[in-house]
Amino acid sequence: MEAPHENNDYLSVHARQLIESYRRWTGRDLVDPKLSPVEQARALYEAPFVTASHGTEADPVFNYANRATLTLFETAWADFISMPSRLSAEPVAREERAQLLARVNQHGFIDDYSGIRISTSGRRFHIRRATVWSVIDARGAPGGQAVVFRDWEYL
Question: What is this structure's pTM?
Answer without folding.
Answer: 0.92
